[in-house]
Amino acid sequence: MELTDKHAIITGGAAGIGRATATLMASRGAAVLLVDRDEAGLKETAEAIASAGGTVHTTNADVSDEQAVQEYVGYAKELFDGRIDVLFNNAGIEGPIADLVDYPVEDFDKVIAVNLRGVFLGLKHVLPVMIAQGSGSVINTGSVASVRGLAGAISYNAAKSAVLGMTRAAAAELGSAGVRVNAVLPGMIETRMLRNLVTQIVGDEQTGLEVVAQSAPLGRNGLPEDVAELVAFLASDAASYVTGAGYPVDGGGLAVMANGR
After folding, report:
1. Are 75 and 125 contacting, i.e. CB atoms less than 8 angstroms apart?
2. Are 167 and 89 in contact (CB under 8 A)?
3. Which of 52, 85, 99, 195 is the most interior residue, by most CB within 10 Å?
4. Residue 39 falls inside a structural domain
5. Catalytic residues
């Protein structure tokens, strides 16, 4: 699972799963370009990686803006001598928790723009590089919401369901070009996003985290590093025969829901 000499773009790299994945991949030899709108978070992540001896670059970009995506892909090509081995299509937002009939249209559009359009644009503009070089691994961040309904999260649910469908379609289309496309489906991972969601739902962050932890047979919430390990595997040559799949990282939560418990 070494990533020496791999060149990777990681969107949403300023914090959470993106930061943990960038840190892990850099420690295994990858050169990483972090993409995010959070300049302070990008700087913090980059400084930590660089201080540990990793190769890291950053760029500020809105993944839902096609010109911005073209620019970060162009920057990656300059940095990496035209080669992009890995795209971790990870940037995402949660949106508000609200009943469908009350859900603000502007919030629906914003969540779809970042979580779905952003993934599509990343694929659209990185894939030509991978096709030309005859290899590459794309990992899209889905969610347990890619396969289960979450009340009050209509836009997030819609976007993450579509991300899994997009992953499968891209894998079917690109296998003959030597490009693999997979998705990770995080469950209750302790990030800013989860803390915000449980606070909206339960009203108290700590109580909310304790409640959602019980949804998993393992009896705890996950950490960003739990997802990072799977992403690093899918990015590596060890996963050379793996494509078109969505992998839960949820402590067994989906297995329990699938059994109707």
Report:
1. no
2. no
3. 85
4. yes
5. 156
Q: Domain containing 23: what range? A: 7-189+223-258
Kindly report whether the global pTM for this prediction surpasses the value 0.90. Answer: yes
The Cα angle at residue 186 between residues 239 and 23, in degrees rounded to 5: 65
**CATH number of the domain that residue 143 is part of:** 3.40.50.720
Burial of 242 (0-12, 13-18, 19+ CB in 10 A): middle
Q: Is the predicted pLDDT of residue 200 greater than 90, yes or no?
A: no
Phi (first) and psi of residue 138, to 5 degrees: -110, 130
> Would you tell me the crossing angle of helices 154-174 and 105-112 to the nearest 10 degrees?
30
* CA distance linking residue 6 with residue 80, whole number of Å: 9
Domain count for the chain: 1
Residue 248 inside a domain? The answer is yes
Residue 217 included in any domain: no
pLDDT in tens, 106-139: 999 999 999 999 999 999 999 999 999 999 999 9
